[in-house]
Specification:
It comes from Frigoriglobus tundricola. By secondary structure, the protein is of the alpha/beta class. Helices cover about 40% and strands about 10% of the residues. Helix 7 packs parallel to helix 11 and helix 11 runs parallel beside helix 12. The longest helix has about 35 residues.
């Protein structure tokens, strides 16, 4: 039997209304010494408070349902482009920060003006036929979609990744792969091995006659222990014949792009680019309880259930190994590749060539910092400084060097804060396709307008402060 009192009947509600109405109409001050009146006023205030709380919850739930139906949300039933429904409670635009209540059919976190611009840019392209592009970190997320956009624009693409077989499977599953798969070459490369980076650049110079686009997309933000990669590495060791024919073709000639690197012994391993991820290098690298076998996160990556990760590290918590790895991948490897590939850029017959360094908000001096992950902030700031310093040198050869912040399209936090963010209704405003569109905007816009940008940082398709 419920302890909740029944809702008052019509007679009781009418009597309560009459009492409250009389109090409102009374011109004289209410007597403060009457305890019954004081209790009545207190209860009336609580009723109003509860009603407002219920209304806010109802509005929040309704808005969440509307936003879940926006096209950017995975698995959503998209709204019709003409619908643009009204939110009950205004939200702040991710880009311009202005409040908005009319929701775009695709984006649920951008005001209509910014959403329209981003939607056009999301679908932007250019004619890249006859151009050769190099993309580092092309297996998943923004790198995967950057490679796809380049291929669909007509470019020949060389993409690097620690796990080229897994990348080949992913690309081969694309419905239009038959149209561009012959123009994609996937190469195994771990950017932490800087000597291997230099060997790869030398080998690339022998394999292609020109380079027109270089996207330094690979980054290490969250370091993961060997257990996270165990299944990926095992699949890299499967015979190439186990791959679909189209996927295997993307790996043809992979061994020609560099020499073998010893991992645990004196002889080089053909899988070195994957095997390096299995080496325990710091305390905690032997843990494996937080990586359920075969479990996949919503972004397509393997599931990581750790309660802490690199994103929450303070200065004193960053190990020497992680500090060096982050700088090698995020800053030093792009520097080495740019230096080594300049002759290939110069060899191109096309007028303008492009080098895009994928940066992040963490690297901006202009923004506030949380006091966490100082090592990733340092590396991205160093990448930005390279662009700002070297752009004029490259522009002299009509190689236009820029940095791009791809925006917020993934969660880097460990599992508990990430779960709290989702449970509270938090939403990531962009996706990996948006990130790729932002990364390639200096290329597409530079080609289409004939006025390439150089030596600047782009954020939300606009120049931003360093």
């Amino acid at each position: 039997m419920s302890d909740t009192p029944p809702i008052p009947d019509a007679r009781e509600l009418s009597a309560a209304r009459d009492v409250l109405s009389a109090l409102v109409r009374t011109p004289d001050p209410w007597p403060t010494h009457n305890p019954v009146l004081a209790e009545l006023v207190r209860l009336a205030a609580r009723v109003v408070q509860c009603d407002r709380k219920h209304q806010r919850a109802t509005e929040k739930h309704r808005d969440a349902e509307l936003r879940d139906r926006s096209s950017i949300r995975a698995g959503a039933s998209p709204l019709a482009p003409a619908a643009d429904p009204l939110l009950a409670r205004p939200a702040a635009c991710y880009v311009c920060k202005a409040p908005f209540d009319r929701m775009h059919h695709f984006y649920d976190s951008l005001c209509p003006t910014c959403a329209d611009r981003n939607f056009v840019k999301r679908n932007q392209s250019a004619d890249l036929r006859g151009r050769v592009a190099l993309v580092t970190g092309g297996r998943v997320k923004s790198g995967f979609h950057t490679v796809l956009k380049l291929l669909r624009a007509g470019a020949d693409v060389v993409a690097t990744t620690r796990f080229p077989r897994d990348a080949a499977r992913r690309f081969a599953r694309e419905p239009d792969a038959i149209e561009w798969s012959a123009r994609l070459r996937l190469v195994g490369l771990d950017l932490r091995a800087l000597t291997a980076v230099e060997r790869f650049a030398a080998a690339l110079s022998e394999r292609v006659t020109q380079l027109d686009v270089f996207v330094a997309n690979a980054a290490q933000t969250v370091r993961r222990p060997p257990a996270y990669y165990r299944a990926l590495v095992a699949r890299e060791r499967e015979p190439i014949a186990s791959l679909p024919v189209r996927a295997a073709a993307m790996l043809a000639g992979e061994s020609d792009f560099g020499t073998l690197v010893p991992v645990t012994g004196a002889s080089g391993s053909p899988y070195w680019h994957a095997d390096l991820s299995l080496l325990p290098l710091i305390p905690g690298d032997d843990e494996d309880a937080c990586f359920p076998s075969g479990a996949v996160a919503p972004d397509g990556e393997l599931l990581d259930l750790r309660t802490e990760n690199s994103w929450g590290l303070a200065h004193a918590d960053v190990t020497t190994v992680e500090l060096l790895e982050v700088h090698a991948v995020n800053c030093l490897a792009p520097f080495l590749l740019l230096r080594a590939l300049l002759p290939l850029f110069r060899a191109g017959s096309l007028r303008d060539r492009f080098a895009v360094m994928v940066s992040a908000a963490e690297g901006q001096f202009a923004g506030e910092k949380t006091g966490r992950h100082p090592h990733t902030n340092m590396a991205k700031a160093g990448l930005n400084m390279m662009v700002r310093t070297s752009a004029a040198e490259f522009a002299a050869d009509r190689v236009f060097l820029t940095a791009v912040d791809p925006g917020w399209f993934s969660v880097q936090a460990a599992a508990p804060p990430a779960d709290r963010f989702a449970a509270s209704g938090g939403r990531i405003p962009l996706d990996a396709v948006d990130a790729a569109a932002r990364i390639l905007d200096p290329v597409f816009t530079g080609i289409e307008t004939g006025r390439p940008a150089s030596g600047v940082l782009f954020k939300d398709y606009h120049e931003a402060a360093w």
